Amino acid sequence: MRIDVIRPGELGTAEISAWRAMQRATPRLANPFLSPDFAIAMGEVSAEARVAVISEASGPTGFFPFERHPGGTGTALGAWVSLCQGVVHAPGAEFDARALLTGCGLHVWEFGCMVDGQPWFQPFETLRQEAVVLDLADGYPAYVEGLRERSPKFLKSTLYKERKLGRDIGELTFDLAVRDEESFRLLRRWKSEQYLRMGRQDRFGSPWVVELAERLHAVDTGDFAGPLSMLYCDGRPVAGHFGLRSDTVLVGWFPAYDPAFARYSPGLIQHLRMAEAAAAAGIRSMDLGIGTGSEYKEALRSRGEPVAEGCVRRRSAGAAAHWLRSAPVRRVRRFILDSPVLYGAADRAMKRYGHLRTRMRAR
């Protein structure tokens, strides 16, 4: 096995074709966050972005995107915003996790949303959760019928609010892929305000995230796109979503709505309209990411897909130093996530903090 570490922008046409073929051959690898397009965009905004090209005599057998930081510490590519991570590989390929790190010049590699079916990383997992998936393979009517069985009150309430919004304000229309920059700026402003209200760090407060999103929004091919979806009421935007799609999977990334319409739950209406349009466009599933603590995700779900977080460490001094710094924090986080009472208390505290920040900002 040969490992060549390159910048994402150095990927050649043949390597990108092999990467896409591996994604098509294994459906669980079809997530757009695992695509060469995401890796290349990250390489344009991050000096730490790398791709390990794993080859045998017959050619590439895998692609491992990661970020390399000082001290031989590695993270998943775009770890702060990425919702799916791992090695994109040929069917039947096998790897040794520590040998992979050695070939990449890493002592440590941390992951947070590891795709299922990567047994070489399983011994290093510290937490397993589930991503919420909407199954659209049989079309939107079949999805809605399943939703009616699983979450009848949720569906009835959302459809009622959709009708009421139409009666009170005006006709509802939806666009799955909006291209104009003004709408994109509006969605980012809604999302930043939502982060503030929730007491969470604003991802769009980081210039590199804004640049990454803008670069991805500019891509629109059959294999990959960064679609901005918008829900309008009487021609006025009331909710939107920016995500990524491959040829078969749409990933929920940045949903937001106009708080002035909050009582109508426009974000939920947006998700149903988006699922309908995506199914009509040939998308087979929508991945909304980890569902812990999210009532609307649990209501919308068709099934869950396992994802894992953890840390691979080589037997080295650098890895030992990293363990001393990070292990206590991981244990506390795991303890909170495993306790619904503590998780709820932490979430409420963050929202109270966000409410206070919002009031202070308004003065």
From TrEMBL:
Transmembrane segments: none annotated. SUPFAM superfamilies: Acyl-CoA N-acyltransferases (Nat) (SSF55729). Gene3D superfamilies: 3.40.630.30. Residues 157-297 form the BioF2-like acetyltransferase domain. Pfam families: Acetyltransf_6 (PF13480). InterPro entries: Acyl_CoA_acyltransferase, BioF2-like_GNAT_dom. This is CelD/BcsL family acetyltransferase involved in cellulose biosynthesis. It comes from Streptosporangium brasiliense.
